[in-house]
């Protein structure tokens, strides 16, 4: 686990943060339930006419009947064409729109969230990362988050090397951001982008497989990561750090990466994942 691989692999254990979202605001004007009072116009007063003797009617001589006019038959009027409904505006899947929506869905400081999220290929990165994670693999070139600024640290004691607790603290701001996302908002907007996400997954995976099942498999991989006591012993083979305990070193790459966030951060991440998993299962493919 070299420092370079450390920075490249950051992201999959926070993959659920990448449930892409955009908030659609709609203003609906409902008609009022109250109807205006009807306007009543008073009837004019009727007076009795005076009775007078009838006058002799005047006699009019009949006149010649009016000539009959033949009306020309006009051409049939063609009906007006049916109005054409305009096509709906396409969903804005651009990176600025997606990132802005993620930022708005978080209760954390907007500048902090903006700094932690990458700027390019958010939907593509999300799909590739989830697909790899579901297959027990990492997607080092498709991380959704910028790497931490601090370096990975170890300390030596009794002739052995152990992960320094300061290394775990590097991930705490990312976990804080993860918890700042509203679960319902994430899943609602995931539904908005579902068709686009499914289409991108069909290009790299099984086109007949629903992406929801891939997402759940990815979450389960992280939830299956064992919790281990600290400190955790590691060693270096001159290329990367490895876990001294074979049971840990034999875990898949996403699980080993999650372990490196530390016990407290890992518990918080798992709690958030369980909440989101329950919502995905509850909503099914809708």
Automatic annotation (TrEMBL):
Q: Where is this region: Disordered?
A: 34-94
Entry-linked InterPro entries? DUF3014
In this chain, composition skew of type Acidic residues spans: 45-59, 70-92
Q: Pfam family example for this protein?
A: DUF3014
Q: Which residues cross the membrane?
A: 12-30
Q: Does the keyword Repeat apply?
A: no
Print the keywords alphabetically.
Membrane, Transmembrane, Transmembrane helix
Give the domain of life: Bacteria
Q: What is this protein called?
A: DUF3014 domain-containing protein
